[in-house]
Amino acid sequence: MNPHAPVGRFAPSPTGPLHIGSLIAALASCLDARQRGGQWLLRMEDVDAPRTVAGAANTILRQLEAYGFEWDGPVLWQSQRLDAYRAVLDQLVATDLAYPCACSRKEIADSALRAPDGSHRYPGTCRSGLPAGRVARAWRVKTEAGRLDWQDLILGTQHEDVWREVGDFVLLRADGQFAYQLAVVVDDALQGVTHVVRGADLLDSTARQIYLQRLLSYAQPVYAHLPVASNAAGEKLSKQTLAAPLNTQAPSTELLRALRFLGQNPPAELNSATLAELWDWARAHWRLESVPKLRQCVIDPTEEPLRG
Question: Is 239 annotated as a binding residue?
Fold first, then answer.
């Protein structure tokens, strides 16, 4: 494998089995990496221990194998990388780019400023030091005013002022768990990820991740955010909305659904194709530019997605 080739990745959280929405993200990221002649890595994002479900990671691995996915190298487990996250946090603290915060959620809600979208943002209460008699609950990164601009390969030009819209965000939570934003940035840098293809539900995290990448002098990946599959009520398919687990007995049917959702228009003769034949067609015909330029699409439970 060319060490300078593009690197993509799929990074599920083991909170339950994969469903059609997960399959869409896995398939798009894999096909995009393969078409670019690159590697496709698998990372298990189990850094959030309270949300991790026992046995879910093994179920996800079995589902991916049943659907014909092949990844490069060993699976990276975030739960085994806590020392690396701690080292980066210590680096930010040592350079006065991160600080301890004593605020509870209620205090933050009571004192937070309103972001432009109406949500709350952290007002920087502990930025100049902990109030007398208070102890650290969490650790936050210092943000500065200024608009971040980046180009999403699907959704086009994006921009956000992290300081204005989010404020100083958490790197280490009050419960001792490292935040997703820190872990994903550190791991993407470690693995040399160059292309991040994922659901648009994570689009709002991208500016924070780019902000951290720049603070740490990490290379910035290229981002492409796929439409999120939702049910008829407009709810993102998830464990909470009772999305059905992938059927490992009929992988070709579900792969075809995912390809159609992604705007790839597989021909009717593939309805009777083997799993290997379907993968061959998908790798040869993948077109990122055909993916709908939407943040969300309703997926019909039986066949074609409804756009909108």
Answer: yes
Are the beta carbons of 146 and 220 closer than 8 angstroms?
no
Question: Which domains are delineated in the chain?
Answer: 7-81+184-306 (3.40.50.620), 83-153+162-182 (3.40.50.620)
The reply to whether 178 sits in an annotated binding site is no
CA 88 to chain centroid = 20
Q: 180 labelled as ligand-binding?
A: yes
What separation, in Å, do the N-terminal and C-terminal C-alpha atoms of the chain show? 40
pTM of this prediction exceeds 0.85? yes
9 assigned to a ligand binding site? yes
Per residue of the chain (308 residues), give pLDDT as tens: 466 789 999 999 999 999 999 999 999 999 999 999 999 999 999 999 999 999 999 999 999 999 999 999 999 999 999 999 999 999 999 999 999 999 888 887 777 666 556 666 888 889 999 988 888 999 999 999 999 999 999 999 999 999 999 999 999 999 999 999 999 999 999 999 999 999 999 999 999 999 999 999 999 999 999 999 887 766 677 666 557 889 999 899 999 999 999 999 999 999 999 999 999 999 999 999 999 999 998 886 554 433 33
Structure tokens at 132: 């007398």
Determine whether the annotation assigns residue 45 to a binding site: yes
